[in-house]
Amino acid sequence: MIMGRTSCTCHDIPIETFRAAVCNGAHNVKTCFRAIGCLPKCNNCIPMVRSVLAALRPAEAPAQSTATLPVASPNVSTHRGP
């Protein structure tokens, strides 16, 4: 649930506009404002926009672990000859 601010007062943008931007693909604060066609001014609405993003964007896939590849030591010779 989003508490507190429910609009961007500098631009008079209601929270529903931010919700629509997220539903249409905005994935962070910058892309939300870009989708709406403006930039934040005083930044007081940023927490509200972030809470909209957290509530509406799909859960991100868990990070996949990557195996660490062995690294040859500079002191170890890889030459296998007589």
Describe the overall structure:
This protein is mainly alpha-helical. The chain has a domain at 13-56. It has helices spanning 15-23, 29-36, 46-56, and strands at residues 7-8, 13-14. A two-stranded antiparallel sheet has the order 1-2. The longest helix has 11 residues, at 46-56. The radius of gyration is 23 Å and the shape is elongated. The model is unreliable at 61-66 (pLDDT under 50).
What is this structure's SSE topology?
Elements: E1 7-8, E2 13-14, H1 15-23, H2 29-36, H3 46-56
Unreliable residue stretches = 61-66
Overall strand count: 2
Q: How helix-rich are the residues, as a percent range?
A: 25-40%
Tertiary shape? elongated
Supply the helix-strand structural class: mainly alpha
User: Strand sequence of the main sheet, in spatial order?
Assistant: 1-2
Query: What is the arithmetic mean of pLDDT?
Result: 79
* C-alpha end-to-end distance: 72 Å
Radius of gyration, in angstroms, nearest whole number = 23 Å
Task: List the helices and strands in order.
Answer: EEHHH
The proportion of strand residues reads under 5%
Tally of alpha and pi helices:
3
What's the main sheet like?
2 strands, antiparallel
Tags for this model:
two-stranded antiparallel sheet; mainly alpha; 82 residues; 3 helices; 5% strand
Structure at a glance:
This protein has 82 residues and is mostly helical. The chain is built from three helices and two strands; from the N terminus they run E-E-H-H-H.
